[in-house]
Amino acid sequence: MATENVVSIKISKEDQNKVSKAISDLNNILKPLLISLTSTQRREIPKMGDGTEPFVEKVLDYAQSNPEFAPAYLDIPEASVDFEAVKALTGFYRPLLQLQQQLDDSIMLSGSEAYVAALAYYNSVKIATRMNVPGAKAIYEDLRQRFSRANSRDTDNGSPEVDN
């Protein structure tokens, strides 16, 4: 049974270098500005989401036009800087998130297709070994290590079986 090859991605060395440089450039620009939180910090801090963003923007507008209501400890200009950072970083994040998802999907599908092809070859070598085809046994013995597990049976445990 033939399998459909859905993806066939070929990236030239030139394009690979361009992408690597673009990633490096992004890292060089953003890394000094970005923060890393611990998992505890991520759980404990108040979070601003899509629904909260308009509220924060409205509050900042009011605080700038009516500063008499702001508590003395509140730094409105710094809060505005933080809010502008959210907008700018979100503008970078959303397209990168989409790209990351597409990269993940492409890696998964390419890997799946390569693995299915490898399994087809492996099963063909396994059949050739059973039929005593010269040269097949050495390949089979090398490849079957991927599926070996500790048990008393002398089988390929875990490898997809082919009907004989």
Described by strand count, sense and barrel closure, the largest sheet is: none
The shape is elongated
The ordered string of helix (H) and strand (E) elements is HHHHH
Number of strand elements: 0
Secondary structural class: mainly alpha
The radius of gyration over CA amounts to 28 Å
Strand content: under 5%
Mean pLDDT: 90
User: Low-confidence parts, pLDDT < 50 over ≥5 residues?
Assistant: none
Helix content: 55-70%
| Total of helices | 5
Distance between the termini: 14 Å
Descriptive account of the structure:
This protein has 164 residues and is mostly helical. It has a domain of 100 residues. The model has no long low-confidence stretch (mean pLDDT 90).
In short:
The protein has helices at 13-30, 39-44, 53-65, 76-130, 136-143. With 164 residues, the chain is an all-alpha fold.
Any chance you could write out the topology, listing elements then pairs?
Layout: H1 13-30, H2 39-44, H3 53-65, H4 76-130, H5 136-143
Helix pairs in contact: 3-4, 4-5
Task: Label this structure with key terms.
single chain, mainly alpha, 5 helices, elongated, 164 residues
